[in-house]
Predict the 3D structure of the following.
Amino acid sequence: MRTQIITLKHGFQVGGQKLVDIVMREPVVADMMAAERMAGNGGNIAFRSALIATCIEKVDGFDAPVSLNMIGELKLADYNLLVDGLSELEEEGEAEAKKE
């Protein structure tokens, strides 16, 4: 499965630490279904935020899953980096599917 390392500018604040290195993986259908459940009727931003949270595999030094609330606390610059990273992973998956 394809992954991407993303370094945030401001990062997640966890236990008084600033965590900036993120490993995000390519989403699968189950991730999209989980994101829909997490987002409820929140709209596109809530869905994309939930999908990002679901696809983050590692945050340096943090072993628990990333929550939707954690995504919501990010500064916009960091959120945009994660959105761009997710979009790149999705585009790579689409390009690969067209080759098959």
